[in-house]
Amino acid sequence: MPSEQPRSLPTVDVSPFATGAAPSAAQDEVAAELDRICREIGFFLISGHGVEPAVKDDMMEAMRRFFALPEAEKLELAIDRSPCHRGYVAIASETLDDAKKTAGDLKESLDTGGEHGPDHPEVVAGTPLFGPNQFPADPGFRAAWDAYRAQVIEAAQRVQRAMARALGMHDEFLLDREGGEVMYHLRHLHYPPQDTVVPGPDQLGCGAHTDYGSLTLLADDGIGGLQVMRRDGVWMDVAVPSDRLVVNLGDLMAIWTNDRWVSNPHRVVNPPHSDRYSMPLFVHPPYHAQITCLPTCLEPGEEPRYEPQGAGDYLMMRLDATHSYRNPLLAG
Fold this sequence. Notes:
CATH topology: Jelly Rolls
CATH architecture: Sandwich
Number of domains: 1
Radius of gyration: 19 Å
Strand content: 15-25%
Number of helices: 7
CATH superfamily: B-lactam Antibiotic, Isopenicillin N Synthase, Chain
Shape: globular
Largest sheet: 8 strands, mixed
Strand order of the largest sheet: 1-2-10-7-12-5-4-3
CATH class: Mainly Beta
Helix content: 25-40%
């Protein structure tokens, strides 16, 4: 009989995989639990992540200040002015639901990534998505961003070590890849309330979609609105306690694991009377990495279900399909 579908997201304590932690039996226990969860649903909560409440709160407050600015001031950082997909994305400029060709999502965002100077090898080589960020003039924003980004990347590394252990690989497998550096893209999102931005037919704050890379870590303000589709097709509301982060699998994990772990569709519904703020960190393999089925995920006599996939090529394809400045068909 099929396993019973979860009604709420389980929590995994990832502190045993902190950077520099000594090997322990607790790591094996965490990895086994994570494997079980990822087979059942590609979403879970984490504790023991290392993100300090004050650091998270400072980042939330800085993003609230930014999104409260006049539209003209925010547009000075418009993402179409960036050569590396960094900057402000206005409301309805992105369409994450593939079934919607023109109805943009009812959210605005500020997209950031690694801060790469002109001498960075990938910038010199002209590799897409490498270059400088566009930061708000508010000096407090950059300070909050530096602190939060460092801590949430550490949280992501703890999860990646646990994932690698769960898949029978060495703990640094997802962190030490050929093809360059792991890419960490931090988005700052604002979903205005429905009573100020009225949705059109079937228009959501964030349309149903799956994420692109290996995993995503999300912090939000506790307002609610995130919904996850279970394996049985039922949408489940996700409540995020203030001391937890949400983790979900990205599409490339299906290739690595031969569908042992697959990403779940998810969406966001704008609250009726409240603003909603969230901060997803998208973790993507190195741009030049080739994603192929892991030998530990093949049963005897089984063949890989997917052709090898270039990580950067896949990411660019997905970005082109969702952002109106990259795809004129979405701007109609």
